[in-house]
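Readers of this paper often ask what the protein records in our data store actually look like. Nothing more is needed to write down the fold, since each code stands for a local backbone conformation. Below, we set out a record of this kind in full and without editing:
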Amino acid sequence: MLIKFTSKASGAVLMLGEHALPVLTAAGKVFEGGVLPERGVFTAQQLPAAIESLKTAMAAAPEVNDDLDDDDGDNVKPHPMNKAVGFKQRAYPLYEMLIESLEKDEDVMWEPADNAW
């Protein structure tokens, strides 16, 4: 399922549900049975704690580096679509949205994305 995060403070963020679950969990959301609900919210009052929790999780996440040595001419670089994406890269857009929403005292909501693609 494709999840769309929205806030009146910023543009929308899209994320696959399977990737959104660990990001939301790191931001302090607890889900019964470990299942991501279709809809949810970070209230403006919850944002400071969510931001701090997500920042800590991003700092603790291992670096993902599948770049090949640039000096070795024999290596074929993978296409950017084939590169691994780490937790920090997945979480950062939502992290930025949370910060912008805190600055403007706005909630952040998520729901299934319509078929905009």
